Amino acid sequence: MKHFFGFVRKEFHHIFRDRRTLIILFGIPVAQMLLFGYIITTEVKDARIAILDHSKDETTRKIINKLASSGYFIIAKYLSHEQEIEACFRQGTVKEVVVFEPDFAQKLQNEKMASVHLIADASDANSANLIVNYTGAVINDFIAKENTSSALPLQIISEPRMLYNPELKGVYMFVPGTMAMILVLICALLTSVSIVREKELGTMEVLLVSPLKPLQIVLGKVTPYIFLSFVNVITILLLSNFVFGLPVRGSITLLLAESFLFISLALSLGILISSSTSSQQMAMVASMLGLMLPSILLSGFIFPIDNMPGWIQWICYINPTTYFIIILKNIMLKGLGFISVWKETAILAGMTLFLLMVSTKKFKVRLGGK
Questions:
Q1: Percent of the chain, pLDDT > 90?
Q2: CA of 218: how far to CAs of 188, 275, 284, 314, in Å?
Q3: Is 90 exposed, middle or buried (0-12, 13-18, 19+ CB in 10 A)?
Q4: Is the dihedral of CA 92, 94, 95, 100 positive or negative?
Q5: Mind spelling out the 3-state secondary structure of 50-105?
Q6: CA angle, corner 56, sides to 53 and 58, nearest 5?
Q7: Angle, in degrees to the nearest 10, between helices 338-368 and 320-332
Q8: What are the φ/ψ torsions at residue 53 (nearest 5 degrees)?
Q9: What angle do CA 317, 95, 87 make, to 5 degrees?
Q10: How many CB atoms lie within 10 A of CB 368?
Q11: Could you read off the pLDDT of 70-127 as tens digits, one per residue?
Q12: Distance between CA atoms of 330 and 347, rounded to whole angstroms?
């Protein structure tokens, strides 16, 4: 037993001496608990909505004030015409438009019934459904309190309408997010593992003494993955259209060009990971933990970014997958052109250039010895 306890003590010593093992053992569970605790929520918080009030009477003002003070919504815009609704959603500034019919208070007083139209952006079906339900609940609470002082019961009918995804199909939300996650994982993971494998086998030194320059070696390694990733893009689009019935309402050419930009960014991440790790296992762990979890949790793929705490939203906004998902939804579901996605495209292009410079320089330093 003495030898056994000595062996156990030695193993404890090895574990506590290895910082990477300690991070995996204690750091990852804490980080996951914090992330899941803050991110996974079915609540609506500070959802940006717009108001189109055709009546502009005291009753509609009371309902608008109740929506604004509920803590669930932020009144981002006041619209004047029906034609502004589509443009409002195309800009991506609001998640819902609340439309009050003309003579709202008069109808409520005379006919004991009035209607409110709730128009939601259903490109994210879960968020749209939640926001509409919360809006309806606030309006129902308002009319319930009004009925306590009314001889006859009043009724406000909420009429929801879902834009871009009328049937609230989950595939409309999951395909763009899945496509982004697959591309970032496949490109970064396979690129990093492929380059690290050359270092482990010792063949990278052979390549370095060849006439090829380090940059040419990197480009030679990643070029096949650009082609294979494009095959993945086309496969996903075909499956989503013919199997799941997801349309591509915008330009296919623009969609493929944006995909190429995102593939380039993911490949740059793979090069950066490969230059920072010394084994295939470490490259795989870094790719899976560093890219998969943010792609799922911190991109708006499943959970709305607006519902997250402010400090987590900042992390989401430095995650390139966030912008690619916005681009995919705008092109595929809303049928928008380059003018509507130029900001996200510029951010991805800037990230790509930065990562290419950093990863290529780091790669040269690690392998070129200078």
A1: 26
A2: 13, 11, 18, 32
A3: middle
A4: negative
A5: EEEECCCCHHHHHHHHHHHHCCCEEEEEEECCCHHHHHHHHHCCCCEEEEECCCHH
A6: 125
A7: 150
A8: -105, 100
A9: 100
A10: 10
A11: 889 999 999 989 889 988 888 888 999 999 999 998 888 888 889 999 999 988 888 8
A12: 16
Domains of the chain: 47-163 (3.40.1710.10), 171-368 (no CATH)
Q: How many CB atoms lie within 10 A of CB 249?
A: 13
Q: What is the pLDDT of residues 188-226, one digit of tens each?
A: 877 777 777 766 766 665 655 566 666 666 677 777 878
Q: Tokens representing 276?
A: 């920072």
Contacting residues for 174 by C-beta, under 8 A, at least 6 apart:
none
**Higher per-residue confidence, 164 vs 288:** 164
Residue 370 pLDDT: 43
Rg (CA), the chain: 26
Is pLDDT of 58 > 50? Answer: yes
| Residue the block writes with tokens 């595929």 | 332
At 310, the amino acid letter reads G
pTM score, whole prediction: 0.79
Q: How far is CA 58 from CA 9, 40, 52, 104, 198, in A?
A: 76, 38, 15, 9, 73
Q: Contact at 8 Å (CB) between 160 and 118?
A: yes
Residues 6+ apart with CB under 8 A from 356: 264, 268, 271
Token representation of residue 219: 């480009």
- Residue 350 and residue 116 in contact, taking contact as beta carbons nearer than 8 Å: no
Given a contact cutoff of 8 angstroms between Cβ atoms, the answer to whether 358 and 218 are in contact is no
